[in-house]
Amino acid sequence: MRHGTGAGRDRGRVHVTQESRPIRTAAIIAVGSELLTPFRSDTNSLAITGRLNEIGIEVASKQIVGDEPQDLAAAFTGALQRTDLVVVTGGLGPTSDDVTRPTIARALDLPLEESEDVLERIRQRFAVRGLAMPEINRNQALVPRGATALANDNGTAPGLWIEVGHRRVLLLPGPPREMQPMLDLVVREYLAPGSGNMRLYRRVLKIAGRAESHVETLAQPVYSRWLAADPRISTSILAAPGQIELHLGIRSDNPDQARASLERAVGELREVLGLDIFADDGQSLEEVVGGLLRARGWRIALAASCTGGLTSARLTDVPGSSDYVDRAAVTYSNRAKVEWLGVPDDLIRDRGAVSEEVAEAMAIGVREGARVEVGVGITGIAGPGGGTEAKPAGTVVIAIAWAGGRRVRTFRFVGGRAQVRLQSSQAALDMVRRWLLEQT
Amino acid sequence: MRHGTGAGRDRGRVHVTQESRPIRTAAIIAVGSELLTPFRSDTNSLAITGRLNEIGIEVASKQIVGDEPQDLAAAFTGALQRTDLVVVTGGLGPTSDDVTRPTIARALDLPLEESEDVLERIRQRFAVRGLAMPEINRNQALVPRGATALANDNGTAPGLWIEVGHRRVLLLPGPPREMQPMLDLVVREYLAPGSGNMRLYRRVLKIAGRAESHVETLAQPVYSRWLAADPRISTSILAAPGQIELHLGIRSDNPDQARASLERAVGELREVLGLDIFADDGQSLEEVVGGLLRARGWRIALAASCTGGLTSARLTDVPGSSDYVDRAAVTYSNRAKVEWLGVPDDLIRDRGAVSEEVAEAMAIGVREGARVEVGVGITGIAGPGGGTEAKPAGTVVIAIAWAGGRRVRTFRFVGGRAQVRLQSSQAALDMVRRWLLEQT
Known about the structure:
The structure is a homodimer of 440-residue chains.
Chain A (H helix, E strand, L loop, with lengths): L24 E7 L12 H11 L3 E8 L3 H14 L2 E5 L10 H8 L4 E3 L1 H12 L14 E3 L3 E3 L8 E6 L2 E6 L3 H16 L7 E10 L3 H15 L7 E7 L2 E10 L2 H19 L3 E3 L5 H12 L3 E5 L5 H6 L9 E7 L2 H8 L3 H7 L4 H15 L3 E7 L14 E8 L2 E8 L4 H22 L2
Parallel strand pairs in A: 1-2, 1-3, 3-8, 13-14, 13-15
Antiparallel strand pairs in A: 4-5, 6-7, 7-8, 9-11, 9-12, 10-11, 15-16, 16-17
Helix pairs in contact in A: 1-5, 2-3, 6-7, 8-13
């Protein structure tokens, strides 16, 4: 085991030597009683998994424990036996609730020693704000013997990097903006140099407007062939409301070959799934629609009732979207449909607010008012109330209008209010996407 | 150990006898390699935690493992040593990837036996659709000796309930709509009868428009007293963008006393935090604002640029919100501000689209056009681009207008585009809430 000189001093040095065994597998442990309530998920582990995957390290398990030293010690000891790298997040604060530092030191049988460098950094952090360091923060300067402290530019808790024989232990603070820069540093300077060229390459394909079974029936004969290929391509199918995802992965030490294999694989899936695939590298549907509008120099305007602004909120989630989103109307009341969109009063009365005629009039009205290339109209019953026998909750009508014509579809979505709204905005964006692809 | 007669037959019977040790702690293990990618979280465990908490069972750890028998066996064995109940979700399908059933049976040293009842149920599931059961599904009829199979009305995989000395093991399928009914059944018929009257009672207070340090400074002297109280009240503070949450919990066998203690605790926090508390039982800000509007019989109209429909999407997320949301305009282009809201062209030119004058004109314009009691105007720079030295990204101006007047505030939010948008909609809803509370 390498004995560090402690405390932030070695930030620039590479610690992985030739004889090190490569780090292949990792376990992530999140510490915090609040993560064991029904209200909170651990999201740090997703960011950590992403960064580790990039350098070919696979995550074999994730665990969440409360602020209980015994539970953390059991989780940590188990993880260290089974994986090359154990990442622990959270519990590095200064109070007695923060159990990570002493518990891990005890589990590794390493004494805690006060680091002058770390102590000085913490003092300075308070000093720049004109404050004296509270005595309790002195705890955070305790470092297990031989560990390297990782400076924290966004908080007082230093991270810790510990080499234990062939294995590695990384302790990171819980708040993402403190955790993230340390993770980047450790990946770049400690883990990547020892990882050889082995990397995990991924492509994420996304499909809108199709059932999972439909996608699987078409895709399964294709991807089952890849399991025997060299390099082997792993595939998983995941269903989200209004969206199916195909995740392809290759573990390889040859970047060009891996990327070429994935590109061929994407091509094979395109042959069977065609335009149903809206993204072949993880893009969101709103990014794809925005990119198609931008490429044509066109603008869009939306009018919706039941989605209540969700579709425009998604489209404008994309930075720079003000270039192609002109306006959107959320017209819950019929009066707003008449006043802003010019939908004729008697059309609403005769056909009902949820009808193909009114959806078309909304799309045409918002487009003409905004003088843009594409207009979208969405009207429906998100539920749970408001449905009738002829138009049950989940009935949603979507229209798009352009200079040369219009298109309208009636959907019957299943699920609760949030799911109906999400599927509606997904279907509307997908109708716009398919129409844009037809325009050359 | 109780030896069941197998397979779904005992659904109605209560299995907990007088001499059973009460179940106090649980561990949850989610099985599935897709849950170890950067793309997916385990969400089942939140629902399971909520149900177990209701009957006084605390979750001591959560773990996620891939489809690897060795990893699952290690996680399961560790969990069974440390907790009274181990819940395993996922991996109960019929394929070789589905490792839960054989792995748990082996870890408990129980032989797998085919259950005629379960087999018949699976056959019937296929038969009603006119299909023969594929031979591979026969796997799902294998039940560890002594276990009780739990019928699955929404899929082929039965759940399994296993009593191991004083401990309990529950295997549930991964898909929520299959998992949920079995969880309800087990809580009602197997766990609740043995749990005595001990329950976990919670209240979640939410605070808008204040920093975590501000809330903690005021609240800490209050809740630190409760730790010595009987019953003891536990408290945790959680920060989300634009929102601070205080979670209070009491473990008690006396519901009236627990509820009264929590009510007193909420009252003490109200004394120091006052109207900053917008919810005292977990309600969302949009529900609270909707409730206040409904109570007064008033309606609202919104006009926004930088939040792109997020505020109206949140308000209309609440079922029945069409009663009080009249309309919302997302006016990205200046022309839309002029045409829909009547904002004077020269005001935008002279003051800039992001200015207090324009925000006010938007609020007034949308309110008057809609002829409703309250109008909201939001204009700002969500970023990352579009900022200037005087108005950097994150500058957001929010105005509300009513018959008797108007109110406007300029904010400087920090964070990325999504965070600025979320904080903006939070601040706008909170301004409306505070104003509504002043109107008697």
